[in-house]
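The instructor's notes for this session suggest beginning with a concrete chain rather than abstract definitions. Hand out the sequence below and ask the class to guess, before any prediction is shown, which regions might be ordered.
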Amino acid sequence: AFKPAIVRSRTDNVRVQIWNTALGIARQHPRGIGRGNFIRAIAGREVNKAHSALLQLLVEGGWALTAITVLLIVWGLYRAPEGPFKDLVVCLTVQSVMDNRLHHPACAILYAAAWLGALRSGRPTQA
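After discussion, reveal the predicted structure:
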C-alpha cells in the first residue's frame, strides 16, 4: 500500500514538481505501484499522468521493468539501420521522455509502426 504524494503547485514549474514527486514515489516503491495506479499515488492536484512515459513506467512498473525497457530501446536503436524509420523512433522516444504521448493510441500505433519499419528495413530482401 502506498500513501498518496502531494504535488505543490506553482504555475512556473508544475511539470518539474510532478517529475520530482514521481521520482520520490519510485524511490519509496522500487517494484512499482501497479499499472494504472499513478493517478492514485498523486494527491492534492489534478494530475493523472507523469508527463513522462519513462517516469510513469518507473512509478507503476518499478526500476527493473524500466531498466529492461530502456535496454531494449537502446538495443533496438543500435540494431536499426539509419534512415527515416529510425529517425522517427528516436524523435518519438525522446518526446515520450518529456510527455506521455505513448498513452494516446494513435501515437502508440505510430511508434510501433516506426519500430517495425526500422527493424525490417535492415533485413536483406529476397530476390
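Then share the key points. The longest strand covers residues 5-6. The mean pLDDT is 82.
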